[in-house]
From TrEMBL:
Entry superkingdom: Bacteria
PANTHER family, sorted: LOW AFFINITY POTASSIUM TRANSPORT SYSTEM PROTEIN KUP, OSMOTIC STRESS POTASSIUM TRANSPORTER
Reaction catalysis annotation: K(+)(in) + H(+)(in) = K(+)(out) + H(+)(out)
UniProt name for this protein: Probable potassium transport system protein Kup
The UniProt record lists the keyword Amino-acid biosynthesis: no
Lineage: Bacteria, Bacillati, Actinomycetota, Actinomycetes, Glycomycetales
Pfam families assigned: K_trans (PF02705), K_trans_C (PF22776)
K+ potassium transporter integral membrane domain sequence ranges: 35-490
Length: 657
């Protein structure tokens, strides 16, 4: 187990490499390509909400139905517009996306920033907010299970508008699409990813055209742009509007993706795509559906597909199904990223991560997460069976994450930018009050399905904080057993214990430069042998996405530049896969006090730990068993650190937790 330092602020030079495409000046074609890429990856979730959002709001089977009246339709459309404006456009695009961790966004980036800015008296607050952020990340994993289920299911349900007799095929067809979607993940998105953008351009164009067609039937729906309709509906019909807010949340699901995927495309391309295409297309479509419902209340069921003429419904069904697959792909990729970053930050075991593209660092595949998501999504489809039923559960995870992101952002706005308190209390307080109102409305659906994302989130949160705590317990015990590294090296120099020197280079992976790796102790105390050149290596994860090669390596001669033992720290960002052999090749003779490392046939030593449940009161017994069970999904260390299999030796020991 290697050291993963997440609390130490990055040095001033820790920034993405200068060849990072997001950091270089881009021409018009490159900027356009980034905008198109953002349309394909970022906006799939929020872009497919029109398929099911309005019919869910006016669903008569809802526990708190919204009656279909002229005033209510105007009020709902106005609420949708101003929710998208305030939460997505103003908060996420206008403010949150300006808070980044060296180009990376999302809740995990906020957690690392909070740790960096909560030293001294703010340490307890920072610790609490970091825990809150981890719960938000756990809710996002719940969202990652519900989004593919509701998106694909709602699109396939369009079959009913084409031919009601085909309704029995909805569940089987949905299941087949989902299985194929997850089976394809190991191939990566590099092959079809180039088609995501153009397909989503066609999708948003279709949304806008269909919406305009609906608006022409009843142009008076444009009056809903006035905030007075939202205010009148909310305060004049509060007993209806409050419960309706839980369904209005469905119109901005996927808002977090704008922020979380900022590291892939940059802030400006994502913002431009939202302002100039996505937002107008969504608004036109919602207004077109509203106009259609005003014409005939019977259009509530399937109002999205009914916007299209009969001859266009089958092509629209195919396009909708494709768009929902892309939406699912985006949220699955987000789950992979969150899980991988949580692992690097020490909240999950080391996971096997496969990079599916040589050119895009964000395209990764995490097998364990993939199959867990697939089983969960299929279970949701067969358990809930309709998109309306799933919608009751959907909003809680979304708004819970948004509320947490808002709280973390406001804290950083004060700590990082020294924003005056009166601005935070007025503007930030209003925004937080709006989000909390949405959260309160969503909580009314707990008994109707909203308990599900909470249960998923609480389960994932419990696993993550238990792993973090158990990992600390194991680290403390290892530190006690390993003992001080400098003291051990000093004994080696004095010939204690006596050991024969063998030719070659031995690389011993440890947790830091303060303690001696267990494998190194075993080599000398049990085998009585030492290599002519001994390297003690610590892999350190920095709280930045990537570390440039020129800052990758730190060498310590351990007090005697003439000795054959040196300590090397290899630093990686949390978005990188550690490649130990490559990192060691970056050590120059100047860094190693004139010594040239002979790495061609170096032997690598790993210390592995077998865990047992002990009597010490380090954690509750059930948490000990959970920690040990979670440890079984830990990926192979040799594979994780890219070590050569034929030159890697593993030394084991037991530790009680």
């Amino acid at each position: 187990m290697t050291a993963q330092s997440t609390a130490v602020p990055a040095g001033p030079g820790l920034a993405p490499p200068t060849n990072d495409p997001r950091r270089t000046s881009a021409g018009g074609a490159t900027r356009l390509a980034l905008v198109v890429g953002a349309l394909g990856i970022v906006y799939g979730d929020i872009g497919t909400s029109p398929i099911y959002a309005l019919q869910t709001i006016f669903n008569p089977a809802d526990p708190h139905p919204v009656p279909v009246t002229i005033d209510n339709v105007y009020g709902i459309i106005s609420l949708i517009f101003w929710s998208l404006m305030l939460i997505v456009t103003i908060f996420y695009v206008g403010f949150a996306m300006r808070t980044d961790n060296d180009g990376e966004g999302g809740i995990m980036a906020l957690i690392t920033l909070i740790r960096r800015h909560s030293e001294g008296r703010g340490r307890k607050t920072g610790f609490f907010l970091a825990g809150l952020g981890i719960f938000g990340a756990a809710l996002f994993l719940g969202d990652s299970m519900i989004t593919p289920a509701i998106s694909v299911l709602s699109a396939v349900e369009g079959i009913k508008t084409v031919n009601p007799d085909l309704e029995t095929f909805i569940i089987p067809a949905t299941a087949v699409i989902i299985v194929l979607l997850f089976a394809f993940q190991r191939k990566g998105t590099a092959v079809i990813g180039r088609w995501f953008g153009p397909i989503m351009i066609a999708w948003f164009t279709a949304l806008a055209v269909l919406g305009l067609g609906g608006i022409t039937r009843n142009p008076e729906i444009l009056r809903a742009l006035s905030p007075t309709y939202a205010i009148d509906f909310l305060f004049g019909h509060f007993h209806i509007a409050f419960f309706a807010l839980a369904a209005v949340i469905l119109t901005f699901t996927g808002a977090e993706a704008l922020y979380a995927d900022m590291g892939h495309f940059g802030r400006k391309p994502i913002s431009r795509a939202w302002l100039f295409m996505v937002f107008p297309a969504l608004l036109l479509n919602y207004m077109g559906q509203g106009a259609l419902i005003l014409d005939d209340t019977g259009n509530i069921s399937g109002s999205f597909f009914l916007l299209a003429p009969e001859w266009g419904r089958i092509p629209l069904l195919v396009l909708a199904a494709t768009a929902t697959v892309i939406a699912s792909q985006a949220v699955i990729s987000g789950a992979f990223s969150v899980a991988a970053q949580a692992s690097e930050l020490g909240y999950l075991p080391r996971l096997r991560v496969a990079h599916t593209s040589e050119h895009h660092y964000g395209q990764i595949y995490v097998p364990w997460i993939n199959w867990l998501l697939m089983v969960s999504v299929l279970t949701l489809v067969f358990a809930f069976r309709t998109s309306e039923s799933l919608a009751f559960a959907y909003g809680m995870a979304v708004i819970g994450t948004i509320v947490i992101v808002t709280i973390l952002f406001l804290y950083l706005a004060r700590k990082r930018w020294n924003t005056p308190l009166w601005i935070l209390a007025s503007g930030g307080g209003l925004l937080l009050a709006i989000n909390v109102t949405f959260l309160a409305a969503s909580s009314t659906k707990i008994v109707h399905g909203a308990w599900l994302p909470l249960l998923i989130g609480l389960t994932a949160f419990t696993v993550m904080i238990t792993w973090k705590r158990g990992r600390q317990v194991v680290s403390d015990e290892r530190e006690r057993r390993e003992g001080p590294l400098r003291e051990f090296v000093e004994k080696m120099r004095r010939g204690e214990p006596k050991a024969a020197q063998v030719p070659g280079t031995g690389v011993y992976l440890g947790r830091g430069k303060d303690t001696a790796p267990l494998a190194l102790r075993a080599a000398l105390e049990l085998n009585h042998a030492r290599y002519a050149q001994t390297i003690v290596l610590a892999v350190q994860t920095e709280p930045v996405p990537r570390v440039p090669d020129e800052e990758r390596i730190v060498v310590d001669d351990l007090g005697d530049c003439q000795d054959s033992v040196i300590h090397v720290t290899a630093r990686f960002g949390y978005a990188e896969t550690p490649d130990v052999p490559r990192a060691l090749r970056l050590v120059s003779p100047a860094q190693a006090e004139g010594r040239k490392l002979r790495l061609e046939k170096a032997t690598y030593f790993l210390s592995t730990i077998q865990l047992r449940c002990g009597p010490e009161p380090t954690m509750a017994t059930w948490r000990k068993h959970l920690f040990i069970a979670t440890s079984h999904i830990t990926s192979d260390a040799a594979e994780h650190f890219q070590l050569p299999r034929d030159r890697t030796i593993i030394v084991g020991s037991h530790i009680e937790v």
